[in-house]
Specification:
- The structure is a single chain.
- The chain is of the alpha+beta class.
- 49% of the residues lie in helices and 25% in strands.
- The protein folds into 2 domains: 106 residues, Beta-Lactamase, CATH 3.30.450.20; 180 residues, Alpha-Beta Plaits, CATH 3.30.70.
- Strand 9 and strand 10 form a beta hairpin.
Length: 341
């Protein structure tokens, strides 16, 4: 073999590894570009972090939280989106990730504009490059629609659909809490008022259900105007309302509140162009009279309300122990509280 041929063969052998190296480098660059684009197009807001510093943030993170790419790169995640009162969560997450490799929770994060968002957070431990440095991949999910749906369900379970007032279940819960507080603060009395709208059935029958609903909404508005924010107003169904007057004074003061309510309700109400006049029959039970349970004081107010109706309507009556013939048993009390008596 000639010297020239040997020289050409050696050159070809030397060139081959160089070409392979070039192809390998290009392949690595392509792979890196592919994964970078894959990360950037991920559907959930995601950041790659080392410690508390953001190394990379994808488009959805930028969109959700409102920061620019430049503002995110190298920034402390606490300064970006974690409210001061939630900073302990970061340490908890990192501790869990260090031991288990992954952690998740539902929490609140803050946007650039200062809006608080309900989010779920999933943190996963990852390796950062060939040096085996450890970092975290943090994925967020906006769960505001879910939280809003849960809030709507909870609200509908505890509030009247027409008036938006508390319903029987929420009223009973608040009354129970108020009675428990009374054990600690016996100087803070309360009163329960049951109110029935006189002539509601006639209005409903004469003008229709829409007029009846309009009347109930007018009564609701007037009750809210007469009472304080700490008081509870509930609709028990039909034309029956219940009031929990918290931290009240003497019976004379409560009678004054009942008088204001009566005056407000007796004002004419426009229902579909027709002017109607109604009044209210109210029964009042006082905590200072002593009662064993929330059911019992509700039953007392109910009895007093029927006494007011029997005595001519458009008036209020306080519960008097002498009026109660035979004390109802526990099942009867619960039936009154649940509205099935």
């Amino acid at each position: 073999m000639s010297t020239a041929r040997r020289s050409n063969g050696l050159a070809r052998m030397l060139k081959k590894p160089a070409n392979e190296r070039i192809l390998s480098e290009r392949d690595c660059e392509n792979r890196a570009r592919f994964f970078e684009e894959l990360f950037d197009s991920a559907p959930e807001p995601t950041v790659i972090m080392q410690g508390d510093l953001v190394l990379q943030a994808n488009r959805e993170f930028i969109r959700l939280f409102g920061y620019s790419v430049e503002e995110c790169m190298g920034a402390d995640i606490h300064d970006l989106i974690i409210p001061d009162e939630r900073r302990h969560e970061r340490e908890m997450l990192l501790h869990t990730v260090a031991s288990e490799g992954r952690a998740s929770l539902e929490t609140v994060r803050r946007t650039r504009s200062g809006e608080d968002l309900d989010v779920s957070v999933v943190v996963t431990q990852v390796r950062l490059g060939p040096l085996d440095a450890m970092g975290t991949l943090v994925a967020y999910r906006d769960i505001r629609p879910q939280k809003q749906a849960e809030a709507r369900l909870q609200h509908s379970a505890l509030h009247d659909g027409l008036t938006g007032l508390a319903n029987r279940a929420l009223f009973l819960d608040r009354l129970t809490l108020t009675m428990a507080r009374l054990q600690r603060r016996p100087d803070r009395n309360f009163a329960v008022v049951f109110l029935d709208v006189d002539r509601f059935k006639q209005v409903n029958d004469s003008y229709g259900h829409a007029a009846g609903d309009a009347l109930l909404l007018a009564v609701t508005e007037r009750l809210c105007a007469c009472l304080r924010p700490q008081d509870t107003i509930a609709r028990f169904g039909g034309d029956e309302f219940a009031l929990l007057l918290d931290d009240v004074g003497a019976a004379e003061d409560i009678a004054g509140v009942a008088g204001r309510i009566q005056s407000a309700i007796q004002q004419p109400v426009d229902v579909g162009g027709a002017e109607v006049l109604v009044s209210a029959s109210m029964g009042i039970a006082l905590s200072e009279d002593g009662c064993g349970s929330a059911y019992e004081i509700m039953q007392r107010a109910d009895e007093a309300m029927y006494t007011a109706k029997a005595n001519g309507k458009a008036r209020h009556e306080f519960y008097a122990a002498a009026e109660a013939a035979t004390p109802p048993d526990d099942l009867a009390l619960e039936a009154i509280a649940l509205g099935v008596a």
